[in-house]
Backbone:
């Protein structure tokens, strides 16, 4: 327990002393009248004044103390709010009698949240600061902050104690501010295009909409099990059947699978469906969407990502089968022959089930030899029907579908296709998925008879797409772990023994 920590106990004693002195260490009000960034912007002109100060201007700012330099009759502190960091000059003779020596020097510490009033001035070193004439403790921090120059170096600790990570690292806060803007801009982009935002259930009677293993929960009132949503797709397409023509949902999805640099059990995506359109229209609107984001986020079209540079002026399209030879370097004579693919994979030391279909094996080849080479934005098109159970077959070649996935910097960012609207074809594909599930594939679709029933009433030709928000934010912020763009990523529980070690 944190209260057992000796440093915390010392600070708890200061809390008690402050109360005995008539000071509430946990105030519920602040008279702040500006943020730090606004203060710095508004008073930038003081640098041009002769005496570098303006005692006629008075401001009240609030924030957490990040730096404290105690001297004799005067001190400097730096406080930080969400918008920035500000240096404050605190002199004994400018505060109420006795406050500086009795309260400030003895009981105000790094980590505390304070309110400071004063006028702007520029120090001898040229830094715009605040000359304090009042100081009020708003919140006493009893847990000590990490040492300033090292901060939290343990990534595991940063994820588990995100609040502390945000306190110590302003760059981390910027990442999540960008994430918030991406979601807001995404919503605005689709609304401006005439799409209607909708909400669909997060607990499903059947796990469907994607090939994934679901989380299972129990609905007490109904007395039945439910599955946390792995995708909203089948519900959104029911709405297209119902007559909506352009809809989207920014949604949380849950998949009971492994965790790595690009996968978290719960994640955010946008799915949108557009009646009377095809996947070709989705390629066009996706390019528009990226242009819109880059314009409003003021990002360069040559975007650094790790040791790569992604050229967003260079979107390209290539069919999956063609990519195996042109990008993956696999001999053309291999890619359409199941036995040759199996032999090739065995030669490369890659183990796969011999029962996989040709389309599934082509998918394996793509994953192993092509995906990581797709640096500039690339639409991989014409996926085999075997690995696209919800996509519409190509009218001329029924072995492939009208589908694309968008890859950037070697990772999938979006998945889209012209939707299957033939109820008989959909039913047959569900049946094949059920057989696969019975054979041991726990990620295969279950039969969704109600969805087939919905399609039987007629769904207009429709194109649908999902874009992974988490991976998109990773790309735009140059982060290489999904945990760095999730405020609270999934973590293994700590044992009580380890928790005690952390607290000490």
Residues:
């Amino acid at each position: 327990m944190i209260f057992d920590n000796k440093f915390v106990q010392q600070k708890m004693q200061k809390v008690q002393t402050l109360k005995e002195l008539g000071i509430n260490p946990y105030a519920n009000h602040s008279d702040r009248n500006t943020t730090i960034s606004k203060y710095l912007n508004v008073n930038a002109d003081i640098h041009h004044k002769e005496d570098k100060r303006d005692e006629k201007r008075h401001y009240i700012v609030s924030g957490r103390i990040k730096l404290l330099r105690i001297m004799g009759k005067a001190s400097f502190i730096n406080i930080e709010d969400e918008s920035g960091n500000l240096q404050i000059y605190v002199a004994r003779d400018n505060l109420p009698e006795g406050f500086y020596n009795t309260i400030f020097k003895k009981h105000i510490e790094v980590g505390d949240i304070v309110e400071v009033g004063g006028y702007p001035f520029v120090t001898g070193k040229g830094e715009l600061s605040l000359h304090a004439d009042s100081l009020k403790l708003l919140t006493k921090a009893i847990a000590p902050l990490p040492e300033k120059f090292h901060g939290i170096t343990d990534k595991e600790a940063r994820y588990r104690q995100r609040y502390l990570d945000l306190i110590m690292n302003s760059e981390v806060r910027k990442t999540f501010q960008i994430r918030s803007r991406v979601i807001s801009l995404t919503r605005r982009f689709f609304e401006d295009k005439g799409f209607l935002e909708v909400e669909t259930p997060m607990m499903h009677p059947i796990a469907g909409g994607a090939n994934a293993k679901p989380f299972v929960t129990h609905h007490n009132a109904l007395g039945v099990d439910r599955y946390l949503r792995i995708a909203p797709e089948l519900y959104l397409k029911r709405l297209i059947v119902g007559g909506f023509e352009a809809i989207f949902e920014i949604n949380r999805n849950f998949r009971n699978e492994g965790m790595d640099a690009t996968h978290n059990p719960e994640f955010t995506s946008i799915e949108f469906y557009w009646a009377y359109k095809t996947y070709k229209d989705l390629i066009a609107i996706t390019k528009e969407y990226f242009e819109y984001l880059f314009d409003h986020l003021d990002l360069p079209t040559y975007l650094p990502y790790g040791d790569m540079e992604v050229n967003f002026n260079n979107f390209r399209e290539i069919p999956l089968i063609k990519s195996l030879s042109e990008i993956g370097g696999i001999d053309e004579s291999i890619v359409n022959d199941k036995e040759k693919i199996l032999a090739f994979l065995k030669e490369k030391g890659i183990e796969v089930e011999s029962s996989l279909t040709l389309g599934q094996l082509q998918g394996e080849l793509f994953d192993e030899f092509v995906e990581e080479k797709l640096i500039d934005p690339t639409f991989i098109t014409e996926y085999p029907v075997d690995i696209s159970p919800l996509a519409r077959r190509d009218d001329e070649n029924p072995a492939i579908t009208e589908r694309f996935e968008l890859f950037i910097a070697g990772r999938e960012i979006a998945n889209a296709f012209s939707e299957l609207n033939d109820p008989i074809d959909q039913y047959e594909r569900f049946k094949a998925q059920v057989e696969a599930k019975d054979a041991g594939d726990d990620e295969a679709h279950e039969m969704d008879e109600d969805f087939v029933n919905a399609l039987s009433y007629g769904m207009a030709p429709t194109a649908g797409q999902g874009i992974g928000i988490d991976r998109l934010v990773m790309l735009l912020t140059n982060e290489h772990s999904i945990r760095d763009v999730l405020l609270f990523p999934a973590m293994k529980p700590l044992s009580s023994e380890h928790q005690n070690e952390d607290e000490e």
